[in-house]
C-alpha cells in the first residue's frame, strides 16, 4: 500500500509501493476490461478466493493499520473504508478510501495464469496519477482465503525499488479482509485489516470512477 498513500501529491502517492516504495500500484489501465478467461483455468483455491470476494460485493467496511514499518504518517489515525464496489465477469474493483482521499482503487482480475492485482491511483479531477497501475500476479494456486501477488515487469520499471514487492489480499469470510505489502530483502511491511462483521454505509465513488 505504501504507494497507496495520500494522493494529492505524487510523493504521498509513492508512500504504499513506496510502502514498498509502499505504493498500491497497478500495472495495466484499470478501465481496460480483462480478456475473457475461462474460470476453470484458475486453481480450485483461486476460484474459492474469487467467490469469497464476490460475496462482499456492494458492501463497505472500516479498517485500521495493524503493521507499518515505513513510519509514513498518511495512514495514522485516519478513518479507512474499503468498498467492494464493482463485480463483473473477470474483474473486481475495490476502492480504498483514507479520510477524504478517494484516490485509490484495488483492481483484481482473472488472467490466463491466475489472478492479478493492480493499483489504480487517480487525481481529484479523475485523471491518472503519475504513479499508477502497478501491481503483480499470482505465481501459484494460493489459498482460498489468501492470494499473493508478485511485482510485475511494469512495476519494476515504474518503481525500481518495488521490484521485489509482494502484495497479499486475504478474505476470511465473516471475519476479516486484509491488504498487506512486504518487500523481500528489506524490513518494509504494511498491513491494513477490515472488520467484516460490521458493514458500514458505502462511501462516495472513488475519483475517476463516477
Number of self-contained structural domains: 1
Describe the global form: globular
Going across the biggest sheet, name each strand in turn: 2-3-5-6-7-8-9-10-11-12
Architecture per CATH nomenclature, i.e. the level-2 architecture: Beta Barrel
Tell me the number of helical segments per DSSP (H or I, 4 or more residues long): 3
Give a verbal description of the structure.
- The protein contains 3 helices and 12 strands, in the order H-E-H-E-E-E-E-E-E-E-E-H-E-E-E.
- The chain has 210 residues and is mainly beta.
- It has a single domain, classed as Lipocalin (Beta Barrel).
- It has a 10-stranded antiparallel β-barrel with strand order 2-3-5-6-7-8-9-10-11-12.
Write a concise synopsis of the structure shown.
With 210 residues, the chain is mainly β. The protein has a single domain (10-29, 39-200), classed as Lipocalin (Beta Barrel), CATH 2.40.128.
Write the layout of secondary structure elements.
Elements: H1 10-13, E1 17-18, H2 44-54, E2 60-68, E3 80-83, E4 86-88, E5 91-98, E6 101-111, E7 114-121, E8 134-137, E9 146-151, H3 153-158, E10 165-172, E11 176-183, E12 189-200
Antiparallel strand pairs: 2-3, 2-12, 3-5, 4-5, 5-6, 6-7, 7-8, 8-9, 9-10, 10-11, 11-12
Amino acid at each position: 500500500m505504501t504507494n497507496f498513500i495520500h494522493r494529492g501529491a505524487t510523493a504521498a502517492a509513492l508512500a504504499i509501493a513506496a510502502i514498498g516504495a509502499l505504493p498500491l500500484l497497478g500495472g495495466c489501465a484499470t478501465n481496460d476490461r480483462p480478456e475473457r478467461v475461462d474460470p476453470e483455468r484458475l486453481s480450485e483455491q483461486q476460484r474459492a478466493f474469487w467467490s469469497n470476494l464476490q460475496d462482499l460485493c456492494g458492501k463497505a467496511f472500516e479498517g485500521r493499520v495493524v503493521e507499518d514499518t515505513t513510519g509514513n504518517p498518511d495512514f495514522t489515525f485516519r478513518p479507512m473504508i474499503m468498498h467492494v464496489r464493482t463485480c463483473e465477469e473477470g474483474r473486481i474493483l475495490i476502492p480504498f478510501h483514507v479520510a477524504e482521499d478517494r484516490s485509490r482503487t484495488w483492481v483484481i482480475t482473472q488472467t490466463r495464469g491466475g489472478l492479478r492485482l493492480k493499483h489504480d491511483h487517480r487525481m481529484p479531477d479523475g485523471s491518472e496519477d503519475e504513479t499508477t497501475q502497478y501491481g503483480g500476479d499470482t505465481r501459484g494456486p494460493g489459498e482460498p482465503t489468501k492470494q499473493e501477488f508478485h511485482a510485475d515487469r511494469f512495476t519494476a520499471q515504474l518503481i525500481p525499488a518495488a521490484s521485489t514487492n509482494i502484495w497479499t489480499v486475504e478474505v476470511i469470510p465473516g471475519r476479516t479482509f486484509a491488504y498487506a505489502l512486504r518487500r523481500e530483502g528489506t524490513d518494509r511491511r504494511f498491513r491494513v485489516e477490515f472488520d467484516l462483521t460490521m458493514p458500514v454505509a458505502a462511501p462516495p465513488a472513488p475519483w475517476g470512477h463516477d
